[in-house]
Here is the input.
Amino acid sequence: MQALVNRMGFNNDGIEQLIHHVRNSNYTGVLGINIGKNATTPNNQANSDYLKALEAAYPLASYIAVNISSPNTKDLRDLQGGDSLESLLFELKAAQQRLADEHGQYKPLALKIAPDLEPEQILAIAERLLKYKFDGVIATNTTIAKSTIAHLPHGEEQGGLSGAPVAEKSNRVIRALYSVLGDEIPIIGVGGICSGADAVEKVRAGAKLVQIYTGLIYKGPGLVTECAATIAYNCKSSG
Ligand SMILES: Cc1cc2nc3c(=O)[nH]c(=O)nc-3n(C[C@H](O)[C@H](O)[C@H](O)COP(=O)(O)O)c2cc1C
Here is the structure.
């Protein structure tokens, strides 16, 4: 089993530092910037953190991932439903339109969700993504379900679990999203890709793109080539 417990959280030096590093780098490839609210900001003020981060990231990013699914920020996952999600998507889309006009360039927004959602929660999210014409959805973040590793050393530690144990949970979310979204909003599949076959499963579940995190640590960059080749061989392109 190839898995990591994400105890590190995703605290960093903040969006200004990130922008500073990006501006000072020579990187010219695709750049996704992942934004989340501060741990200390209550959920009823979360939108303002997301809007500030979006504004700062917008000029540099190729696309922006809106993370409402990290298990390390208390109650963050509550933003995945109800009025909180509705108002967050509404405000982000309005800001995106304003920033697109200001910068003369449209940058896609993708919502990143958890693998631990109930089927009706996933369907509700999918319907809101359609309503607000979100550009993409990233499924999924790490899981808080640890029963598969409870017997292992450190199996009881706090934090989200990534890698092999999240693969099927993430595929289940992708399938449920695809049942509503079809090809209208692209799904980016992530969670437990450790081989080309795992990547193909994500595409077969409905993903248009895949991301790899934990698999890269265990397998190294060759995994990217393996996934690209296995997808190209097994999955007929739809567009
Ligand atoms: C150490 C660690 C840090 C992570 N930090 C973030 C983060 O800051 N934002 C985020 O959206 N997801 C974060 N994730 C989740 C990963 O991006 C990914 O969605 C998840 O681990 C499932 O993919 P994987 O099984 O390929 O790792 C993190 C995961 C790990 C293990």
Remarks:
- The beta strands are 5-6, 32-35, 63-67, 109-113, 136-139, 160-161, 187-190, 209-211.
- The pocket of flavin mononucleotide is lined by residues 4, 6, 8, 10, 34, 67, 70, 112, 141-142, 162-163, 166, 190-193, 212-215 (CB under 6 Å).
